[in-house]
Amino acid sequence: MSAVLKPPTLRQRVPSSDRLGQIALVGTALLLLVGLVAPLLLILSKALESPEGGGAGAFAAYLASPALLQSLWNSVWVSLLVTLIVVPLAFTFAYALTRSCMPFKGLFRAITLLPLLAPSLLSAISLIYWFGNQGVARDFWLALGFEGIYGAPGIVLAECFATFPHTLMILVTALTLADARLYEAADALGTRTLRRFLTITLPGAKYGLVSAALVTFTLVMTDFGVPKVVGGNFNVLATDVFKLVIGQQDFQRGAVVALLLLVPAALTFAIDHAVQRRQTATLSARAVALQPKPAPRFDRAMTLFCMLIAALMLAMFGMAVFASFATLWPYNLAPSLVHYVSGLVDAELGVAMLNSIELAAATAVFGTASVFVGAYLLEKTRGLETTRSLIRLMAMLPMAVPGLVLGLGYIFFFNAPGNPLNFLYQSMALLVLCTVVHFYTTGHLTMVTALKAIDPEFEAVSASLKVPFYKTSWRVTLPICLPTLLDVSRYFFINAMTTISAVVFLYSPDTKVAAVAILNLDEAGESGAAAAMAVMIAGVSTIVTLLYLAVGKLVDRRTQAWRSPAR
Hints:
The protein is mainly α. It has 25 helices and two strands. The longest helix is centred in the first third of the chain and has 34 residues, at about 65-100.
């Protein structure tokens, strides 16, 4: 009888498959602790220490310095101005795509995606060729009353180009989620167009507008490439970090500025999170999708507006392409490959391009696997509730951490002599880890959304049949989520190809990537070669995007037939 009443052993209480899942969950937590939390804590520690022992007093003294306050003010007002320009333009463009019957919607949408395929440096370089000291439209720029393109005007223009597609994607999603019945009721009541827009359209899209504004502000506030190339003597926080760390080797003050750079990003993230919690569903089970009706005058107006925006996009991108082939700007504009040869061969930057492709490929594979495993364990397994809460918090944190701040934290953490992980410093593996962590949040949220859509009965039935969770994941969950996995992988690849702020502090001569090479070429006065390298990055990103789309169609045919309606 005593043998019958003996409590079950740990092996009996926890199946081996569940123990394996818990071990993997702890591994995910360790990855985020090492790759995110520890570097951020080292930045805080470094900011509070001082060679003279000043500690917090030195921290407060530097916060009160006029130069820092001026850079902070410059960053804030430029970010606000770009937000005030981009959000209305992107909202109008999104409104044209979703609420009009204008032609060539797909073409206009594709053109607006061009800035995503190249580093933000491309827009700054293009502006120099348009309005710089030897720009083709320099006289026009001066006639507008500006003294030159360098400084705040150049930063604002270049950031508008770089942030527009990010803002547009959010607003297109917000405007797509509309219930046609509300508009039908308004028409039946004889509501005027303006009143319908103010009482139905804007309230329905207000959360999207808030998110778009916050994302735009944060992107401009934390961007490093554009102010570095076209900022001139106009200092912002992002360039201050770079100058203090790389130029002056002043890591303590660099850490102080990094913390300041972290504050606005964290605040906007917190505001966005609070706003999203108050958001209510706009589509019910009985909702009817809104289909725009032809309105000739309105459609023509929207077409003209989108043509103008698309023309500006093409002008910006096209100038960089043209300048990369011009033999000697502005004296010999005959097309040649001299800049590509000087960049890839003479400057030996072909290795940098190969490093970028290697970094992007490794980030796409390792990042997608990490995101899928972490999201699956959170959503589809049980146990270790405290660890789960910690992972959810850490998974959201990278969205509020600028790349420069993360890179600086990696210097403090991985370059510490007593750190057993010191061997990773300046290696390609560390660049991959930094890039994965930097873009972790978006991939994580995408995977969690996809996994939440899968009925938990799959796991319940598998558990009742004694099937380990990893077999269910391999046979059921993974095939269903393949399209989402491809989207996440493409997201990691493109961002790894174009990022500069996250890796600018971490590369070595053997691991220099193409985006950093663009920065070095521009500093050396080789603008043509810098433009050529930016165009090559955009070309690689475009080719890989097309390959992903082709693979996605194949995956849909082979694994997503269940989504098609039964005949």
